[in-house]
């Protein structure tokens, strides 16, 4: 196979170029939202979609088996070429989704690129649109990706928004498929609030198709808000690939996660922080305040604990199962509990949601004691 190397480039930029260049596959090397030592691969098919779990497992088996029979003779090896204008091509595709007269003149933006894949494309794009951009997390050294910055550390944009009196703060994760925002008052805006705003706006513009796909982590406040707006809402398993699969199943064009993975099916095949940022900024262009636009529903109190473990299989132990059952029984109909393995880190994630904060704490502690 002939290979084009490019980057650093956001994940969806790779997905878009894989599709537009009619490539057989796109391979992203990324730490995603994790530290550098959790670097991994994201694989995209020729349609720009992530490969299914089934196909990925088949590839993993081939790698683990050290199957040399499928390797080509050195004389027949493909050639490698550097694609120097990858970011420019990606920016051009993003801009093509908006009117030519769209500009951000007079808008001051704090931008945190997490020392990751968007450190070139994001500032360049927003500056080209006329915004005044104060950039953070744009000095990657291979080790500082997501280190006390980016969407998993939003306090950085909160402090900067207040310091520089910015109109809005935008924070991406390492591969820029997640977005967390901050309004002009310093309030952090997560993916659920962004999805709520987009769903309401798209419905009024007759852009919304079908409804919205969230996940088991989506706040009940979002579900309740969409119900009041008469917008259909279904939950998938946690993970943007499962959101996308369900969007495809029901023919919906909007879905995403509280963590900021948001898929705009009208424009993209996977989560794209820059694209979502543009869609939100397009709504803010008429001098509307971020605090008015993005605090759209009252969330139900929710706590997420990430517990580091040596072996994630501990979640299946009799002791842990018994604790989860006990916690769910205690919670009853007063809220929700979700316990799951992290897909990328050696952690068990425990989420509890209820109006009763003491009940949340008690339920989480019951489960934590069975894991530690």
Reconstruct the topology from this structure:
Blueprint: E1 3-5, H1 11-20, E2 26-30, E3 40-44, H2 53-64, E4 80-82, H3 86-95, E5 108-112, H4 121-128, E6 132-136, H5 155-164, E7 168-172, E8 179-182, E9 188-189, H6 191-204, E10 211-215, H7 220-228, E11 232-236, H8 240-250, E12 254-256, E13 262-264, H9 273-284, H10 290-294, E14 302-308, H11 318-331, E15 335-341, E16 347-354, H12 357-371
Parallel strand pairs: 1-4, 5-6, 5-7, 10-11, 10-12
Antiparallel strand pairs: 2-3, 7-8, 8-9, 12-13, 14-16, 15-16
Helix pairs in contact: 1-3, 11-12
Which characteristics define this entry?
alpha/beta; Alpha-D-Glucose-1,6-Bisphosphate, Chain A, domain 3; four-stranded mixed sheet; 4 domains; globular; 372 residues
Which overall shape is indicated by the principal axes computed on the Cα atoms? globular
Determine the structural class based on helices, strands and strand pairing: alpha/beta
User: What is the percentage of strand-forming residues?
Assistant: 15-25%
Total strands: 16
Note the gap between the termini: 47 Å
Supply the CATH class of the largest domain.
Alpha Beta
Q: Low-confidence segments, ≥5 residues, pLDDT <50?
A: none
Q: What number of structural domains do the residues give?
A: 4
Number of helices: 12
Please state the CA-atom Rg, rounded to the nearest Å. Answer: 21 Å
Largest sheet: 5 strands, mixed
CATH topology of the largest domain: Alpha-D-Glucose-1,6-Bisphosphate, Chain A, domain 3
């Amino acid at each position: 196979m002939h290979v084009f190397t490019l980057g650093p480039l956001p994940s969806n930029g790779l997905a878009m170029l894989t599709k537009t260049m009619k490539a057989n596959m796109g391979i992203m090397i990324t730490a995603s939202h994790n530290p550098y030592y959790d670097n991994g691969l994201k694989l995209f098919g020729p349609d720009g979609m992530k490969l299914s779990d089934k196909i990925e497992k088949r590839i993993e088996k081939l790698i683990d088996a050290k199957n040399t029979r499928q390797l080509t003779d050195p004389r027949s090896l493909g050639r490698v070429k550097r694609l120097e204008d990858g970011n420019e091509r990606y920016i051009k595709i993003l801009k093509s989704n908006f009117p030519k007269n769209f500009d951000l003149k007079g808008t001051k933006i704090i931008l945190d690129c997490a020392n990751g894949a968007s450190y070139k494309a994001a500032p360049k794009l927003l500056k080209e649109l006329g915004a005044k951009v104060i950039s953070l997390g744009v000095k990657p050294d291979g080790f500082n990706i997501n280190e006390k910055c980016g969407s998993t550390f939003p306090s950085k944009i909160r402090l900067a928004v207040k310091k520089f009196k910015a109109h809005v703060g935008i924070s991406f994760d390492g591969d820029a498929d997640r977005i967390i925002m901050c309004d002009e008052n310093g309030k952090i805006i997560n993916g659920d609030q962004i999805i709520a705003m987009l769903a309401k706006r798209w419905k009024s513009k007759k852009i919304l198709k079908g409804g919205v796909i969230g996940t088991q982590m989506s706040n009940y406040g979002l579900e309740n808000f969409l119900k009041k707006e008469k917008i259909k809402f279904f939950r998938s398993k946690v993970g943007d690939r499962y959101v996308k699969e369900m969007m495809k199943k029901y023919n919906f064009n909007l879905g995403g996660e509280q963590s900021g993975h948001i898929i705009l099916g009208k424009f993209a095949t996977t989560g794209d922080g820059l694209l979502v940022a543009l869609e939100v900024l397009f709504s803010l262009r008429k001098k509307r305040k971020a605090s008015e636009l993005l605090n759209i529903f009252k969330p139900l109190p929710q706590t997420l604990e990430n517990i580091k473990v040596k072996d994630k299989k501990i979640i299946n132990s009799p002791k842990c199962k018994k604790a989860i059952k006990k916690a769910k029984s205690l919670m009853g109909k007063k809220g929700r509990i979700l316990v799951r393995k992290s897909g990328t880190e050696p952690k068990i994630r425990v989420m509890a949601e209820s109006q009763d904060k003491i009940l949340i704490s008690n339920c989480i502690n019951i489960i934590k004691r069975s894991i530690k």
